[in-house]
Amino acid sequence: MFDSIADRYDTINRVLALRMDIGWRSVMTNDIKKILILDIATGTADVALQLIDDLSTSSTSTSTNTQDYDVTVLGLDPSENMLSVGRKKINKRGLEKQIVLERADARDLSNYYTNNNNPQSQLLFDAATIAFGIRNVVPNRDLALCEIYKLIKPNGVLAILEFSQPSYDSNGILGAAAGVFIEHVVPFIGGILSGGARQEYIHLQNSIKEFPSPEQFKNQLQNLECS
Q1: What pLDDT is attached to residue 103?
Q2: Interatomic CA distance for residues 76 and 101, integer angstroms
Q3: How far apart are CA 135 and CA 164, in angstroms?
Q4: Contacts of 168 (CB under 8 A, 6+ apart)
Q5: 3-state DSSP call for residue 12?
Q6: Contact at 8 Å (CB) between 126 and 159?
Q7: What is the dihedral of CA 38, 157, 28, 107, to 10 degrees?
Q8: Collapsed DSSP state (helix, strand, coil) of residue 45
Q9: Domain boundaries, the chain
Q10: Which terminus of the chain has fewer CB atoms gathered within 10 Å of its CB, N or C?
Q11: What is 5-164+211-223's CATH number?
Q12: Is the pTM of this model over 0.90?
């Protein structure tokens, strides 16, 4: 599905989110001052690039040695076309040595285990990020979360940015308005901007509606048991 809209994906996101998605990603990545980061559902590499920007800003404001904040981001995504767009953005900024994009399914990250029989020898990441991706991992979302968990250091960070269905009860009139926007406006405008791929944006509407509330998802994470 994402392969078919990859070339227009960034533009459509900016329009539908009124450019607020840039700020949302910045909030998610701002406190991640880590060296080795795994970015799941990296798509067109917006989060990976934001991580590099955040680290660069920190290095100029808090250190005279930019090497103190060297960062390597491994971005994974199942859509090759999305990755292709991301690589062009990375190459344009000359960040090929700091960001690597590879095709992978979050439900099976075994290729990134250094030694399946010895977890202590695995390549472990300081942090993992997922922006607008965990909602699309169906079925077996728990399996994907456990696969990511296996690749994070014991004191590492998992940062997830995701949509959930707004409600009038908890969000008042703005929540109701957001619900109408997601259900009716997003598929219509998304279909026009993507060249008629309205079905993809009906999926967006449905996947948001079916995703757990923030409290439910937090409980799911806290109660998840991984081998």
Answers
A1: 97
A2: 6
A3: 9
A4: 175, 176, 179
A5: helix
A6: no
A7: 50
A8: coil
A9: 5-164+211-223
A10: C
A11: 3.40.50.150
A12: no
